[in-house]
TrEMBL record:
Membrane is among the record's keywords: yes
Top-level taxon: Bacteria
Record-annotated EAL domain positions: 24-274
Source species taxonomy: Bacteria, Pseudomonadati, Pseudomonadota, Alphaproteobacteria, Hyphomicrobiales
Residues of the full protein shown: 507 to 794 of 800
Protein name, as recorded: Diguanylate cyclase (GGDEF)-like protein/PAS domain S-box-containing protein
Keyword hit for Coiled coil: yes
UniProt keyword terms in alphabetical order: Coiled coil, Membrane, Transmembrane, Transmembrane helix
Region of interest (Disordered), residue spans: 265-288
Amino acid sequence: QAKADGKGRARLFEPAMDAHLLFRKTFEADLRGALQRGEISVHYQPLVDTETRSICGYEALMRWQHPVRGWVSPAEFIPVAEDTGLIDALGEWVMRQALQEAARWPDHFTVAVNLSAVQFRSGALARTVISALAAAGIRPERLHLEITESVLLAASDQTLATLHQFKNLGVRIAMDDFGTGYSSLSNLRSFPFDTIKIDQSFVRDLSTGPEALSVVQLIISLGTSLGMETTAEGVETEAQYACLQALGCTHVQGYLFARPKPARELDHAASPPLPEDAAADGEPSKTS
Ligand code: C2E
Ligand code: MG
Ligand code: MG
Ligand code: MG
């Protein structure tokens, strides 16, 4: 197509294509060796129970520290890992790592691990999870597997069978990023989820207008009536927290409480942010 535009443009265009391809190939090659070189790690973000305002578990989030580029966002490398099939090895490593780590936490704490749709393809996923649970000695009820609607979009019988296998084991299944994918409501019918995670885009817009508020209210009442827990993602302010709690949201996650951190920096007893922190966030009300 570039050639049809004329020779001048084609000459300009092709090196750019080459550069992009080269970048992509280098990126892939780097990612291929990242696990062996010890560049992959897991960070943990607390999950807070809105009834007690205390930490009740963590979500495991994969991290890649590239020797030259520094921290690479999962939003950038997970899709590449999916395209290249590297996600199977990376995903299994995170699963084993997170479950081993959870064995050191208070026994009632949950551990959430994200799964990509691609990981359901090999047919080995259930076996991997069972073996990782056994190796860590973790009760299946403590493990929450987070899947996005894309898993259900392409759901083969095998994917659904795997999900039911998890349920039968007692593992909990959460629908991540709810509201951002396709046909959200029919997806909720196709599988008995334990948790709905409200996408952070709705939480962010809570204060900007009535629309996001209505959507969040709807998702929470939907989840509640279906007997599911509802977790709001991306909670950054006390105002958002208060609103979500008032609406009956059961759990929250977000920078208000903590950013994802390496396991050694976790403090389970950390009292969640004090009301004073919230005051610092908003307008000072002492004067006037
Ligand atoms: P996610 O599962 O929806 O994770 C939530 C994302 O929101 C995380 O980004 C987290 O750091 C970020 N976050 C948490 N609280 C706040 C907040 O208050 N404000 C804002 N602005 N962001 C917040 P992260 O770690 O960059 O991960 C991005 C996505 O990458 C994840 O979204 C998940 O879909 C994927 N991902 C991460 N780790 C894994 C993994 O081990 N396996 C798979 N398959 N996907 C993963
Ligand atoms: Mg998640
Ligand atoms: Mg999410
Ligand atoms: Mg997400």
